Amino acid sequence: MKTLVRVKEGSFPVRYDGEVYNIDDELEVLSEHAEHPSFEILGEVAASEKPLTATEIKAQLDELGIDYKGNASREDLLELLENEKPAE
Question: What Cα–Cα distance (Å) separates residue 56 from each residue in 5, 48, 87?
């Protein structure tokens, strides 16, 4: 899941995903990075229709406390996530 954040007043420039963001710049970060002291949280980003990346799947598995092999394929990770997610 991603969160929309703004770089806080008084912060140094922030480098995220190869880009540099200055004070008052807004960016989308992985939710686990949103609590950084340089960020003001603006809200969660609505889920997009594009498929999750392996990194995003691993982040969700980590949040759920599910173990996985670091070199597992995206498809294997997705299957593991779908099998372990609680029923809604």
Answer: 18, 12, 20
